[in-house]
Amino acid sequence: MRKRILAMIIDYFILLLFLEIIIYLYSYFNNIDPLFLHNDIEIVIALLMLTLKDLIFKNKSIGKKIMGIEVRYNDNKIPSFPILILRNITVIIWPIECLLILLKKNRIGDIIFKTKIVLTDNVNNISN
User: Fold this and answer.
1) Are 107 and 90 in contact (CB under 8 A)?
2) Number of DSSP helices (H) and strands (E) in the chain, helices first
3) Radius of gyration (Cα) for the chain, nearest Å?
4) What is the C-alpha separation between 53 and 28, in angstroms, rounded?
5) Which of 26, 42, 60, 107 is 20 to 30 A distant from 113 in Cα terms?
6) CB atoms < 10 A from the CB of 4, how many?
7) How far apart (Å, rounded) are the C-alpha atoms in residues 115 and 117?
8) pTM of the shown model
């Protein structure tokens, strides 16, 4: 469970860094104060990045890759791309998701789509 939380923190840090770079570059080239750019477009980009993050390394985000974990179905098969995207839509309610990981070891997306997080090397469920 600790690896999963650390992977989430890494993914959010990368997301924030990426968004700040985009905002800085956009503001620099358009001669706009970057403080005025934090708006709905940034939220849309962030949500897109969060829902697509597990596609970067087939079934892992950058944080999961660093922590040596990946997404699998409960029967240990690799989920399809649509499932990897759909299971991440629930990150919109990330405080509840974090609480569920701490209490139940699974996010809402994992429960709905019957997925789990496993160690990359041996396909064992890390929440057990």
Assistant:
1) yes
2) 6, 2
3) 16
4) 27
5) 42
6) 20
7) 7
8) 0.77
